[in-house]
Please model this.
Amino acid sequence: MNTSSRQPSTAFSAARIFELSLPQMLWSRRSILLALLVCGPMALATVPRGAWIIRPSQFTDATVGFDIYGLMIWLLYVRFIVPVLGVFYGTSMIADEVEDKTITYLFTRPIQRRAVILGKYAAYLVCTLLLVLPSAMIVFFLLVPVGGGTSIGVQFPVLIRDLGALAIGLAAYGAVFAYVGARVRRPLLAGLAFVFGWEPAMVVIPGYLKRLSVAYYLQALIPHARPPDDAGPPLIVVALRGLLEEPSALGAVVGLAVIIGLCLWAAGRAVEQREYVLEQ
Model:
């Protein structure tokens, strides 16, 4: 009998890995700690909201709440929370199995190795979306009414676009760090170096290297949140905005889709080719 005929499909195997991995991710200590991180913007949003309720006459700018919301989305979510969640979840997809010495149990089952990384990646997406998107929505509804001149209904399409940008950002960073976790021996250090070293360095390095940064494409999807050109000294504005040139929204989506596809393919290939030796 042909052995390959008894092996389940990659999609079926990935679905089974997803079912096993999702509860573990949702109720892990990592998720609890990162949930506290995601609650930070909500706590900060209550400060201007409370001040507006107490003294509404002090907020003369009708768009002050929407401007604060945009700045929080850009600085706290896009530039910090989304990459950090991608690092800590993405690099642990395989590393946790190696550390817990359970990787051999997964690989001895009659499934393709790449199905393990695909199933865990799907569980990562569900887990991080459940953490980040509700937080961003709460921040929006807390801040946009501040000032009294910006209708939630008018700005609601911006929220939908921001949620989409956050979702594709989580997908891109997760794919990148899934590959790092499958290829590198100490993936967490490499991931942190990428987020806090490589990507900020692209701000001051001219040329095409910035196209190898997820932030280059992701930032183009939230143009309303960028600091204006007159927000301060030119060097500070450049450092805050991160990039002097950006692709179009369509170009950004295509670029992020290419990053996701290539990194997941490379991660699956790395898992199939690498020999995992468990330390005693």
In short: DSSP finds eleven helices and no strands in the chain. Residues 230-238 have pLDDT under 50 and may be disordered. Residues 78 and 117 are 25 Å apart (CA to CA).
